[in-house]
Amino acid sequence: MTARQVLRERQYAGADKLAARQRLWRYRPDTGSHAGGRLDLLELAGVESVLDLGCGNGVYLAELRRRGHGGLLVGADLSLGMAYESAAFADATVVVDAEHLPFADAAFDVALAMHMLYHVPRYPAAIAELHRVVGSGGALLVATNGGRHTAEIADVIGTASRAVTGSVWMRPVLSFSIETAEPALRAVYADVRRVEMVETVLVPSAGTVLEYVASQEPEFCGVQPGAQWAEFLDAVRAIVDDRVRRHGAFTVTSHTGTFVCR
Fold first, then answer.
1. Cα separations (Å) of 124 from 64, 144, 145, 175?
2. Do residues 8 and 97 make contact, with C-beta atoms less than 8 angstroms apart?
3. What is the DSSP string of 118-175?
4. Percent of the chain at pLDDT above 90?
5. Does 76 have pLDDT greater than 70?
6. Pick from 127, 4, 136: which is nearest to 77 by CA?
7. Cβ atoms within 10 Å, residue 140
8. pLDDT at 31
9. How far apart are CA 235 and CA 69, in angstroms?
10. For residue 10, what are the domain limits?
11. Phi/psi zone of residue 30: left (φ > 0), alpha (ψ -120 to 50 degrees), beta?
12. What CATH number is given to the structural domain containing 164?
């Protein structure tokens, strides 16, 4: 989760793996923009300068553009591939180390750190940097996952991994989760508002779930690349196909937390 070379050169080198994970959530029961709902928490006037740290393929930058946001939009990511993907929606994109941001003090009115701080080896350093580059009176919007997030997919990974390897797979624990985020943010920000959401998502396509799992690294799933990975994915496909056939959909829990920090 925090290995920079893996993140930069494998997980986020291009758009494919991130997009495969994002497609799972198109079946959310809320038909509105998930990114838009989170941005609404900031109550932006539309003229603020915004830094999107860990911008990925630019979902939040694109939503701000769609709304006609007139302030400066800057995307920043560890991965050159992600900076490239989000460039269409930003005034500028830059490759950065979140623990050492190349921006002046108070350079921005608002910063976003959406589902990315768990990828930072020393996330308190990144929070301190975000606080530094956002001016007095500005805001930071942070999102992360809770313990129940995608529990059903973790169960499938564990079952398939055990069938292929004979070993018990232990799901990696996020260093920066809903449970640990609030105290870390309150150590820097005087005002931290937490919005927690649990949703049940019914995914009718077994292929969408398989794509989500296949976007992970083999080592993350407890198996070796190559033949063992192929056997593991076949086992995943069989489990998911069976659940969709019996229940009409694959049920996934979305458990997320969004924090507005001022």
1. 27, 14, 17, 11
2. no
3. GG-TTHHHHHHHHHHHEEEEEEEEEEEE-TTTTHHHHHHHHHHHHHHHSS---PPPPS
4. 90
5. yes
6. 4
7. 25
8. 54
9. 46
10. 4-261
11. beta
12. 3.40.50.150
Tell how strand 250-261 and strand 134-145 pair up.
antiparallel
Exposed/middle/buried for residue 187 (C-beta within 10 Å: 0-12, 13-18, 19+) = exposed
**Region 112-126 average pLDDT:** 97
Does residue 136 carry a pLDDT above 60?
A: yes
| pTM of the model as a whole | 0.94
d(CA 200, CA 178): 18
When divided into structural domains, the chain yields a total of: 1
Confidence of residue 32 (pLDDT cuts 50, 70, 90): low
Share of the chain above pLDDT 70, in %: 99
Residue 65 has pLDDT above 90, yes or no: yes
What are 40's two structure tokens? 């609404």
- 163 phi and psi angles, rounded to 5 deg: -65, -35
Sign, CA torsion 202/207/209/212: negative
| pLDDT at residue 2, as a whole number | 80
The rounded distance, in Å, linking the Cα atoms of 200 and 27 is 10
Residue with tokens 């758009």: 15
Measured from the Cβ of residue 196, the count of other Cβ atoms closer than 10 Å reads 11
Q: How far apart are CA 85 and CA 71, in angstroms?
A: 20
